[in-house]
Amino acid sequence: MLILMLAWTCAVAASVYFSLEQHRQAFYAEMYAQAKGIHSMDMEYRNWVTSHGGVYVPVTESTPPNPYLSHISERDVTTKSGKHLTLMNPAYMTRQVNELMDRHDAPLRGHIASLKPINPVNKADPWEVKALTAFERGKKEVASIEKMENGRNYFRFIQPMVTEKSCLKCHAQQGYKAGDIRGGISVSIPVDAPLAIENRETLTLLAGHGVIWLLGLAGILIGSRRQQQALLSVRKSEAEVLLLANSIAHAIYGQDLNGKCTFANAACMQLLGYRHEAELLGKDMHALVHHSRADGTPYPAAECPTHRGIREGQSLHIDEEVLWRKNGSSFPASYWSYPVMQDDQCVGAVVTFLDITEQKRVGDELKQSQKLLDSIVEHIPIHAVPQKCRRAAFRTVQSRRRKDAGVFAAGSARQERFRFISAGAGRVLLRQGYGCAGEP
Fold first, then answer.
1. What is the DSSP string of 324-393?
2. What does the radius of gyration of the chain's CA atoms come to, in whole angstroms?
C-alpha cells in the first residue's frame, strides 16, 4: 500500500510540475511575443530614419539641436521662410519617444543602451551590460523577468544594434566599423498584473491537484482495506479447505499445465514418504511418483494419463497403476484426475489417489477361497453330505463373501467421497481461483 501511495504521490507531483512548467512557458511565450513585436517596430522606425540619413525637425525647447552631432556641418539649417531646423538622428528620435512615454506615465519602457555611449543617458544599466557583453560573445538576444529600479517587475527584451555604413555618419568618431555591435535597444513590459493572474491560476492548479491527491489517497486506503479484507477471507477459506483436505485419509495433489506440483495434502505426503509440502511444490509429479511401470521400465510422460487429461481437458479414472515413494518403493494405486478450467481452458488438474494394496490382498484371498471351495464341492459326493451340513456350509460361504465384499464396498464409498472433495476444493487448493470440472 505504501508503494502505491508513493507512486500516486509521485504521479500527482509530476502532473503539478508539468502543469506549472506549461503555464510558465505559455506566459513567457506571450510576453516574449509582445516584447519582440514592439522591439521590431522600434527598429523599423530607426531603420527608416537611418535610411534617410536622419530627419530635420523644427528647433523647440523640447527639441534643441543635438550637441552630440555638432561635428556634422549641416546639423542645423534655416529654410527660405526663416524656420530653423535641426538634424535628428535615429538615437535622438528614439530617446525623445522614450522620454515622451515616461512623461505620459506609459507602462511600456524603452531604452537605448551602449557600453560606449555618446550621450550618458544611453549608458547601459547592469542587466543591459550583461546582455551587451553576451552579444559580443555571439548571443543574438536576451530576455528575462527582472525587477527594475522602481520596484516593479518587467519582462525585459534586448537585441544588439549592428553598425551599418549609414550609422558611421554619427558613430565613426567612436571608432566603430561596419558590422560592429555598438549597443542595443531594450524593451520592458510591466508584468506585475499578469504575474498576479498567473499566481492565482497556479494556486488554483495546486488546490485542484491537492484535492485529486487526497481523493486518490482515500481511494487507495479504502481499496487497500477492502483488498485486505478480501485477502483475509480468501486465506480463511484456503485454510478451511486445506484443513479439510489434510483431515481426510485420501491423498490429493494439484499440478499445472507442465505437470508441476501446486499443492499436496498431508495424506499425499505421508503416502509418498515426504515430510514437507515444499519437497513437492514446483516439482514434476510424473518424474517423482509415476516415472516407471510395475516391471521397472520407464513410463514416458507423454503416455501419462494425467498429462493426457490436462491436454484434453477431460476427467479420467485409472483402476490400478504403480506409484513410487521417495525411498524408491512402490505401491499399487487407483487414482482420479479432474481438470481445472478457466475461461473454458484447462490450466491444470487435481489428482486424487488411493493405496489399494489391502484391497488387492483381500481380492486375492477371496479368489483363493473361491477356488478352494469350488474344489471341495466338486470332489465331495453329494449323497455323502447331510442336507443340514450342506445348508450350513452354504451360509458360511455366503457370509464370508459378504464380509469380503464389504471391503470393496467401503473402498468404493471412500472413492466417491474422494471425488467429491477433489471437485469441490480444487479451486481453492490450487490458490488460483479456478473451477474444477466434473467427469464427462
1. E-TTS-EEEEEEEEEEEEETTEEEEEEEEEEE-HHHHHHHHHHHHHHHHHHHHHHHS-GGGS-HHHHHHH
2. 52
Answer whether 76's CB lies under 8 Å from 85's CB: yes
Contact 337, 423 (CB under 8 A): no
**Residue 406 pLDDT level (bands cut at 50, 70, 90):** low
Helix residue spans in 248-304 (DSSP H): 266-272, 285-289
Q: Cβ–Cβ contacts within 10 Å for residue 107, how many?
A: 13
Convert the pLDDT of each residue in 262-282 to its tens digit: 988 888 999 999 998 899 999
Average pLDDT (256-261) is 91
**DSSP secondary structure string, 385-419?**
S-HHHHHHHHHHHHHHHHHHHHHHHHHHHHHHHHH
| Residue 112 pLDDT greater than 70, yes or no | yes
Q: 306, 337 in Cβ contact below 8 A? A: yes
Where do the domains of the chain lie, and which CATH numbers do they carry? 53-197 (3.30.450), 248-436 (3.30.450.20)
Distance CA 164, CA 227 (A): 77
**Which residues neighbour 130 within 8 Å (Cβ) at sequence distance 6 or greater?**
142
Query: pTM score > 0.70 for this model?
Result: no
397: pLDDT strictly greater than 80: no
**Strand residues in 135-258 grouped as ranges (E):** 142-147, 153-162, 181-190, 251-256
pLDDT tens, position by position, 80-106: 999 999 998 888 888 888 888 888 778
Q: For the chain, what's the residue count? A: 440
In which residue are the cell numbers 514418504 written? 273
Q: Are 142 and 128 in contact (CB under 8 A)?
A: no
Task: Give the confidence band of 42 by pLDDT, cuts at 50, 70, 90.
Answer: confident
In angstroms, the CA 333 to CA 133 distance is 96
